[in-house]
Design goal:
Layout lengths: L1 H17 L11 H8 E2 L2 E2 L2 H12 L11 E9 L5 E8 L3 H12 L3 E2 L1 E3 L2 E3 L1 E10 L2 E2 L7 E2 L1
Antiparallel strand pairs: 1-6, 2-5, 3-4, 3-8, 6-7, 8-9, 8-10
Length: 144
């Protein structure tokens, strides 16, 4: 009889333990999940496509200003791929800044995606300026 009671207690203890599940994997926050599935806006042709577009469309001002630096334009792209807003983040000179804004506002993008849904997205575009002229020499153009 003792053996039977011992056996029943042993079986009930193991069956209770089997009902508990311990999950030691780290929980992902909603922000982490959003980042994993977010794809930023993309210009046709990638970075080299942006460089060739800028070289073709950027009109050098007649008055040359001997300035060096980088114009950075923050571009907000809507869910249809059109530029909704463009703003100067880093300036070199007012004339060059205005030309960079003009070029950015005419760009067309593949819209950003959140999973499979098209959403608004932001991308930063850099215009490297050397001695008052647009100059691409192995400098990154896109910053997401």
């Amino acid at each position: 009889m003792r053996q039977l009671i011992f056996l029943l207690l042993l079986m009930s203890a193991t069956s209770l333990r089997a009902q508990f599940h311990f999950d030691f994997s780290p929980r992902r926050t909603q922000e982490e999940q959003r980042r994993e599935t977010f794809t930023p806006p993309q210009f046709k042709g990638g970075e080299s496509g942006i460089i060739s577009y800028i070289k073709k469309k950027f009109e050098q001002p007649e008055e040359r200003e001997e300035r060096d630096g980088r114009i950075i334009v923050a571009v907000l792209v809507d869910a249809k791929g059109k530029v909704e807003q463009a703003q100067i983040v880093r300036s070199v000179s007012p004339t060059l800044d205005q030309e960079a804004l003009r070029v950015c506002k005419r760009m067309k993008f593949k819209p950003a995606k959140q999973g499979n849904k098209k959403v608004k997205g932001r991308i930063d575009i850099t215009f490297p300026i050397r001695r008052g002229r647009l100059s691409f020499n192995n400098l990154p153009t896109i910053d997401v």
